[in-house]
Amino acid sequence: MNALVLIKQVPNTDSPFRINSAGTWVEEGNLTYGLNDYDRYALEELLRLKDAGTITELVALTVGPERASSALRTCLATGADRAVHIKDDALAAADPLSVARAIVAAVKDGGFSLILAGLQADDDNYMQIGPFVARLLGRPCATAVMRLELRDGATVRVERELENNRLQIVDLRLPAVITVQTGINEPRYASLKGIMAAKKKEIRTLTLSDLKLDAGAIAAASARFRTVRLAPPPKAKGAEILSGPADQVAKELVRRIREKTGVI
Amino acid sequence: MACKILTLVEHESGAIRDTTFELLGLAHRLAGEAGWSASDIKALAIGQDLAGPASSVAARGAAEVICAEGEAVRDYTCDGHARVLESVIGAESPEIVLIGHTPNGWDCAPVVAAGLGVPIATECSNVAFENGRPLFTRKAFNGKFIQVVDLGDARPKVATVQRGASPAFGGGTPGTVRVVPAGVAAGELRAAFAGVKKGETGAVDLTQASVIVSGGRGVGAAEKFGVVRELAAALGGQIGASRPVTDMGWLPHEHQVGSSGVTVNPKLYIACGISGAIQHIVGMKGSGYIVAINKDPDAPIFGVADVGVVGDLFEIVPALTRAVKEAKGQT
After folding, report:
1. Region for A256 from its dihedrals, namely left if φ exceeds 0, alpha if ψ lies in -120 to 50, beta otherwise
2. Cβ–Cβ of B319/A247 closer than 8 Å?
3. In sequence order, which ranges of chain B are alpha helices (DSSP H)?
4. Continuous segment of H or E residues that includes residue B214
5. pLDDT tens digits, one per residue of A25-74
6. Where are the strands (E) in A50-175, listed by range?
7. What average pLDDT does chain A have?
8. In 10 A of CB B35, how many CB atoms?
9. For the domain B206-330, what is the CATH code?
10. Up-side HSE of residue A130: CA atoms within 13 Å toward CB?
């Protein structure tokens, strides 16, 4: 069977984040980027099925600007067979539903039995693209999956993470869309050989016109998902910050811990 | 058959969860802001044999509780729930749909939105009218920033709402319960419920600990956890961790504090190198006294801590261990 992993390139969490002048998103100029952490686990889960011979072809797909192709290269270097890059200026400020529609336009005839994605992206934390794609393709979906097992050619059994350390077991009929939680496996790193081999693998670029999608319709849909403002979180009560040499700060902490908790 | 706000009842085999009443609390506030009547607020319960439990929801906030019942939706599946939600939303044409941001809520809500062709605001910490428009407040960048979203002319406007985002509805309502067939046959569903099980458990039980010293991504590596262990040992406490630490295998899952791990309430919680993603904070904010040590002065953990130190944990934590030992020696 063939499988698809949906990935996103996101700012590294230790990047210097600043709010842009419009106050609607972050300033992108100072950021460094990498493959979304959740997506590494989705990719690894499919690479294991490929190693086991269950998956014949594994395709990685992203929607993003030029720079996002390096995240696709990371997927190719760890073992994906080919990649698809949906790239169009009209998608730069697109709402999540329009992004999902673009993905669906690109993959609907692809014959993918399994589509995996990370539970969420580390930048917007939306948790939407996987379920959106599932619904638009008319496929069953499960999110926050911690275990995945192909039972036969027709069913995949998944364990979804619930609260309080419990898991729900669900059987999905294939083809299906699944988003994975971090910790489901241990993602591999690319080998030097893999990095070299990736250079010869295909990244196919698709624009809106290739997908027969209309930029006007995307702009109209995106008006229904507008970030009015982005701001630092309100400092609730906030901690009192101690400063000074480590030994002095430590003594002060001990004094307070003793006074407030009595555990020392 | 119409309403302005439709909320989803969250229950486990008929036991109504608190989220349900928080969503109704939020719905009543929004109705007040919009000038809608309390009779414009309805709730939808999906499952089997719900009429009894639903009456408590009708008495505490919902003008009508629609119980969509059927064997095929007795247990939660995304496919079954989403089909019922789409059809009930179609019939009731609400302005706003509120669903709890719980593992089942976040699972089915985006599917429903895509089915209706409308956007969704996920994991909202607040929804409020501003200049006549409902705005959806949520965190982005793992809590580094707050994002406020306007869903334009979408109808309905769908949101998943964090636990604790609103106080539970406190009043009483003379609501009614209407049982309708779910209209979903097991044969047409492509997902089948196969049970619920406990995750891995080990010997560590953080829920009973009176002191917890937790390490996060900032510790850097499994072999660097020594400083955290030594402080925990000096205080006679247990070792906790944030999600990245257990995901990377630095510590077993049983040490994980947070929404997907355990919820703890020790007398003393010391967070070392933990930035304070909301998933972690919900699991430890009930601690008696919270100390945070982090190199990033903007880390959200400082928002919930009582006292914080901005700096290198590899200097501060060992110094704290020495000071604790010294203090214990003196007593």
Report:
1. alpha
2. yes
3. 18-34, 51-59, 78-92, 103-116, 226-235, 243-247, 278-284, 301-304, 313-330
4. strand B211-215
5. 999 988 999 999 999 999 999 999 999 999 999 999 999 999 999 999 99
6. 57-63, 82-86, 112-118, 141-150, 155-161, 166-173
7. 95
8. 9
9. 3.40.50.1220
10. 35
Count of helices and strands (H, E) across chain B: 9, 17
Residue B22, CA atoms < 13 Å, CB-side half-sphere: 20
Mutate to test the interface with A, among B137, B146, B260, B316 (most CBs of A within 10 A): B260
Nearest CA in chain A to B283: A164
| pLDDT per residue as tens digits for the range A83-113 | 999 999 999 999 999 999 999 999 998 999 9
Let me know if the fold of B5-188 is the same as that of B206-330.
yes
pLDDT tens digits for range A196-221: 999 999 999 999 999 999 999 999 99
| ipTM for the complex shown | 0.93
Range B172-191 average pLDDT? 96
Q: What residue spans define the domains of chain A?
A: 2-222
DSSP line for B86-148? HHHHHHH--SEEEEE-SHHHHHHHHHHHHHHT--EEEEEEEEEEETTEEEEEEEEGGGTEEEE
Put simply, the chain B residues between 140 and 169 with a CB less than 8 A from any chain A CB are 140-154
Mean pLDDT of B183-210: 89
The two three-digit tokens of residue A126, written as one number: 């939306």
- Given a contact cutoff of 8 angstroms between Cβ atoms, the answer to whether B43 and B8 are in contact is yes
Give the A window 178-197 contacts with B, CB below 8 Å: 181-183, 186
Contact A239 B307 (CB under 8 A): yes
Alpha-carbon distance of B79 to A158, in angstroms, equals 14
**Contact with chain B for residue A92, Cβ under 8 A:** no
B72 contacts chain A (CB < 8 A): no
Q: pLDDT digits over B226-241, tens only? A: 999 999 999 999 999 9
Residue ranges of domains in chain B:
5-188, 206-330
pLDDT in tens, B252-304: 988 999 988 888 999 999 999 999 998 899 899 989 999 999 999 989 999 99
CATH number among 3.30.310.260, 2.40.50.140, 3.90.1640.10, 3.40.50.620, domain B5-188 = 3.40.50.620
List the single residue in A127, A160, A168 with the smallest CB-CB distance to B110.
A127
Left, alpha or beta for B143 (phi > 0: left; psi -120 to 50: alpha)? Answer: left
Check whether A235 has a pLDDT greater than 70: no
What is the band of A181 on the pLDDT scale with cuts at 50, 70, 90? very high
CATH superfamily of A2-222: HUPs (3.40.50.620)
Specify the pLDDT at position B330.
54
Residues of B in contact with A263 (CB under 8 A): 210-211, 235-237, 267-268
Helix, strand or coil for residue A237? coil
Q: Are the CB atoms for B274 and B280 separated by under 8 Å?
A: yes
Euclidean distance between CA atoms A169 and A161, whole angstroms: 9
Q: Please state the separation of Cα A238 from the chain's center in Å.
A: 31
Are B119 and A95 inside 8 Å of each other by CB? yes
Report which secondary-structure segment, H or E, holds A129.
helix A129-137
